Structure formats: structure tokens, C-alpha cells
Amino acid sequence: MVEVVLSPHSVLSGQTLQEISFREKFGLTVLAVWRKGEVIRTGLRNLQLQFGDALLLPVILLILAVLMLILPLLWPLT
User: Fold this and answer.
1) Are 13 and 52 in contact, with CB atoms under 8 Å apart?
2) Domain limits of the chain?
3) What is the DSSP letter of 49?
4) For residue 41, which of 53, 50, 32, 29 has the smallest C-alpha distance?
5) Is 35 helix (H, G, I), strand (E, B) or coil?
6) pLDDT tens readout for residues 29-60
7) Which of 25, 27, 36, 78 is the most exposed place for a label (fewest CB within 10 A)?
């Protein structure tokens, strides 16, 4: 797993994963949110994200998502 921590000026702060279409946009499923020493595993789609939240993401999916973004830039089909 990998942790992605929301910075103080993150545009994601104050929004829910559903509002920003996180899964659709990034192709990743948030497994849990680590907030102030507590692990939140349920209701993640409607959880309002806050500065300092750590989103726990599966590494394999993160690597695949990055590759899907980078490979077309390196080897365009046209």
C-alpha cells in the first residue's frame, strides 16, 4: 500500500471522493483514510476530506494508473 497525504493547500480538501469522482478520474480505489490516529474504512465515498488525511491506496493499482498516464506520452499511437 501507499499513503497519499493531503497538503494544506490541496484542492481535494473539503470535498468527498464522490464529489471529485476520485475512482473514475484516477482509476484508484481508496482502501482507507488515516485521520488523526484513526483508520476510517467505511463511508469513504461521502467522507469530507481534510488537510492531513492520508489516503491508503493499493500500490499495484497506483503503478498501473501512472503507467496509463505516462505511456501514451512516451509512445503516441499517431
Assistant:
1) no
2) 2-74
3) P
4) 32
5) strand
6) 899 999 999 999 999 999 999 999 999 988 77
7) 78
User: Could you confirm whether domain 2-74 is CATH 1.10.287.110?
Assistant: no
- For residue 25, count other CB atoms closer than 10 A to its CB: 10
Contact 4/48 with Cβ under 8 angstroms? Answer: no
Show the beta-strand stretches assigned E in the chain: 2-5, 32-35, 38-40, 54-57
Q: What grid cell was written down for 44?
A: 469513504
How far is the CA of 54 from the CAs of 18, 51, 61, 75, 77, in angstroms?
A: 17, 9, 17, 33, 36
Residues 30-56 as b/e (b if ≥16 CB within 10 A, e otherwise) read bebbeeeeeeeeeebeebebeeebebb
- Which residues are CB-contacts of 23 (< 8 A; sequence separation ≥ 6)? 17, 29
